[in-house]
């Protein structure tokens, strides 16, 4: 009687729950957008009903606990993290792939984050889908997709939003099947997602449909979730299909809530095409034995052998055999025969779930055996016609296969061959081969990237050698130098023109009065007009935003400027023409000591020019001119550039040589990126807000280049830091002096 009263109270409480009005989300710094690992910033939650809940003991484990061949990992391929960049930070949710260009998540994630008072966001700047993030802190194997922040279909009352993805994530990560069947009490479930924005996790222990399974048009389940799980698929373990879209939890009732997938499919005008209700596969035991076989000798010498397990009784052996036969047939009558004999058997719930979902009547007969069809005589296939002669090769890379499957790209490749054969010594065979490997093939399967770089190469080969213009003109001055950016940055290139006059005219027409617009001369004689310099990781979505606003031409792209040999400084442009004060003669200066331990060299006189190299204190320089507080210098290598004059000295300074050994850390055997154990982060600036670019470890030897009160700028010399577990080797960055034993000569 007590259980009945408690159950009645629970049902009454659930029926009284109003539509969710309070959210539970987690926020991260805006600067982390585009990164796989996010730095925690804030959270927002309130009220009795949350958008995530852990029920009892937390039973949510890493998907990496299972092999890549397991059913859990295979289904998890289609589930990813959804990063929502707003003016107040990044708010991650979970989403999953439902067809070639759409992913499904909660309405309260996109666009509903703007309605969350605790988040305080007023606009969504970008949305990104991160697939393949399964191991905490490890970026290998992940892929990022740009997502349109405007849903193609969304309903707030069902808390779902269907978003369009740029590209086809299903080609690499597959898609989940959606079930329109009615959930039943006690059905076994899995929930896969990215709680707290971390690597993928799965809840399956004690994860099932509540009793009752449905209340107030919502699916109730007991699977553990945390902030960030919003938008996770609720998967029926027997069907291996999505039966609900997780979105909320209640502290009072200790259950989680999902929107039944049947309701979403009934409302949707798009998801019907992705609907699949038939599943010929037999039910899968959600608790397979994933323990690896022990290796010889693991139990230790002298360990007595384990006794044989107790023999099973005959009824258990019989039921095991009947269940195996039912799985083999995969039809209703086999599962019904099993249940008639084995109601109390351990696999009975999965057999009953199969019957509830797949069997329409109580008496289903097996399909009659059909005779083998008469096989027609084989017909010789028609000869294959290749778009390019070399497409018949057996070993093609991804870019070559993409060209061979696209008539337009194949036509460009033919034009490229003609341009190369007709060129006048601009590229040797070796140079052309290097271009294919280092430029074209880097595009992978991106058709837009392939077409752009091939067209650039055709233009370069077909353009005759142009005599450089005079270094000065009435309204411009040409500053020669190296303008190639680092691998993490790129210019947004909006157009290319054959003359300075045409390039200046284009810039004035498209970007009147806008600062930051620059014109560069390329090795092919053309002049590229760039809008600004951006981080390469953010370039795709930023260019996409500019194109959608009509702020740049539709064929704009990003380039590191590898072929830029000079910049045109012009009156009225973003890079204004600075007054030049040439010295009557050259003179010698030295780089003075400074806290950073280096001096940036730039292609022009100002911080608006990105630096292309860094020189150490004590370096001897030849000054050939000045402009304001900037000196035009010749480096020991013969290269020219501009440096900040106040950081120069007329006399050679004493430069201390400092070294350090990493100390005070746990052993590398205890390395754990989640807890921060076993490593010291190397960052872009002397602050914990600096982006992590590498790691050093206990006992590593490093060179100390510069120092502040609590931080040291270091570079790895020897030890494990030469092959870091995260980040890049050989970089210079800032680390806490607390863990460095520094000595100087």
UniProtKB/TrEMBL annotation:
> Matching Pfam families, A to Z?
SH3_3 (PF08239), Trypsin_2 (PF13365)
Per the UniProt entry, the Enzyme Commission number(s) are 3.4.21.-
Q: Which InterPro entries match?
A: Peptidase_S1_PA, Peptidase_S1_PA_chymotrypsin, Peptidase_S1B, SH3-like_bac-type
Q: Which UniProt keywords apply?
A: Hydrolase, Protease, Serine protease, Signal
| SUPFAM superfamilies membership | Trypsin-like serine proteases
Where is region (Disordered) located?
276-314
Q: Where is the SH3b domain?
A: 587-652
The protein's GO terms of the molecular function aspect are: serine-type peptidase activity
Q: Compositionally biased, Basic and acidic residues: which spans?
A: 286-298
Q: Which GO terms describe its biological process?
A: proteolysis
Q: Kindly indicate whether the keyword Signal belongs to this entry.
A: yes
Primary enzyme class: hydrolase
Q: Where is the signal peptide?
A: 1-22
Q: Which family does it belong to?
A: Belongs to the peptidase S1B family.
Q: What is this protein called?
A: Serine protease
